[in-house]
């Protein structure tokens, strides 16, 4: 659990004021709740963390802040995720509480989630299906937009990074009146292809192979240099988002949003084009005595297409996933307690050439859920949730539950939590019929798949306090220790499907028996003088029928840390610096073709000059770490890189 951090460029007195404010989170309980009262440990990445991290995208942001989380490459160089032993299809990513359509190699397109106008990111580890349904088997990551309170803001920004000659350019505009609030953002990014060096030439490898064949002494490390990634493809992205809030009365609020995303991945022989379209409308009405009702509709579409150099498409239609979601939520306060009732309808449509005869499939998901928040005493709080889901395509239904207890003592807060999770088989997993890469190897769907299920148990101890004794320790600190166990059954994977029309095949199948044990430790201390320290550690151990792939390598030990200093020297100059790092331990698989642990440091410095002029510089991978070989799950670095960025807040300048 993270403390609220001071805004960039604040004075020491402002820091002392801001750290005493208790932030509010929503992901763990589906309703606003003070972080210290959240029923489940919630990791909060706030706006200061986002700004000082100098992150280009959500992947960069999360790996700097969350131990036990690692991104790598999947086939076609799409992004894969491992978070505490769970892959991307078991971690639900939300933007303002809304799902995203589309997936590639079991992961959503993380490039769609840029960090412009993001106010905070909330991470809940462990099953959360009782509130969020399918895919929330291993956790939820909710990216929440900020709502400006200033009459108007305008910002233009640009950043250059030497890795891939990456240029990121953006612009944001907002206005706020008594009844209207608008946020508009645009971001464009270009990245050149990057050639990854091999540690040894092909001649050196051939020489060692000859020595081995002749029975002579040879260097095994040279033979292990069989990198399966030699070149990172170039990328171009465009991302436009708009959110408009209208408050016709004090009780009634409407929120409309829309967005367009385009990404091209520039391959040697063809280009991949990705398009995302999103829109939504939400209405909220609040009565007296803590009652409110909200009704919303959300649409999201994600398309993929391959183009040859002459502009021809390789298929008539490659991939199009469309989701329509209707959501209703009613909240009723009963004195100190509260009741939440909700229901959703999801229509999921997918068409792709990877289905038989290029056909399409669809399914409907209907659910209903309830949560009761029972404040027994000022110290004891119990929150219970239950949910029912039905999926039409697989005719599967599921009940999921969660029970969380929070007990506060003057010196420590105790949390205990049980939650069940599930993930319904996707349309792809049920109906795929695809010759992978036209290599005579079939991937076969299975309409008889059962939903994945998980049972999560965790216990947490937390202490937050303020030190005020006129010593160098004056400030506020937080200590959180979490122990957990995840029991994972009916995991959907692939097995040998035997021969299919004379070709080798892989068949989607359910397997049982994965258990994940672990512990997370988080320590934060913010001194009144502007110095801050954050340290996070994650230990994880998997047992049972554990699946290690070339894309996902769970690691037993991982660390992240950051030492920061924030100070305003004068009216026209403030300085904000942070030295951060992350350490990934050895993979549990013990495979020699994967990095056996690595450490990467990063230095970030922000200069706040005059009115709204911000100059950002960073040095990533300070100690020039380079993998011996490059694999799908290796850190994608060629050594030390540098970045410089300029941000102009035009409203402050004018």
Structure notes:
This protein has a 22-stranded antiparallel beta barrel. Strands 3-8-9-7 form a 4-stranded mixed beta sheet. It has a 4-stranded mixed beta sheet with strand order 25-26-30-29. The model is unreliable at about 1-20 and about 545-550 (pLDDT under 50). The chain is mainly β and about 650 residues long. Helices cover about 10% and strands about 55% of the residues. The two termini are about 40 Å apart. It is globular. The protein is built from 8 helices and 37 strands.
Topology:
Blueprint: H1 12-18, E1 24-25, E2 33-34, E3 43-46, H2 47-53, H3 58-65, E4 69-73, E5 79-83, E6 86-87, E7 91-95, E8 118-125, H4 129-132, E9 139-145, E10 152-161, E11 166-176, E12 180-191, E13 194-195, H5 202-213, H6 220-223, E14 231-232, E15 234-246, E16 252-266, E17 271-286, E18 291-307, E19 319-334, E20 337-352, E21 360-375, E22 380-391, E23 396-408, E24 413-423, H7 427-431, E25 433-435, E26 441-444, E27 452-467, E28 475-489, E29 491-500, E30 503-511, E31 514-527, E32 531-544, E33 557-570, E34 573-584, E35 598-609, E36 613-620, E37 641-649, H8 650-653
Parallel strand pairs: 7-9, 26-30
Antiparallel strand pairs: 1-2, 3-8, 4-5, 5-6, 8-9, 10-11, 10-37, 11-12, 12-15, 13-14, 15-16, 16-17, 17-18, 18-19, 19-20, 20-21, 21-22, 22-23, 23-24, 24-27, 25-26, 27-28, 28-31, 29-30, 31-32, 32-33, 33-34, 34-35, 35-36, 36-37
Give the CA-CA distance, first to last residue.
38 Å
State the assembly state of the protein chains. Answer: single chain
DSSP summary: helix tally: 8
- Secondary-structure class: mainly beta
Percent range for β-strand residues: over 45%
Global outline: globular
What is the residue-mean pLDDT, rounded to a whole number? 87
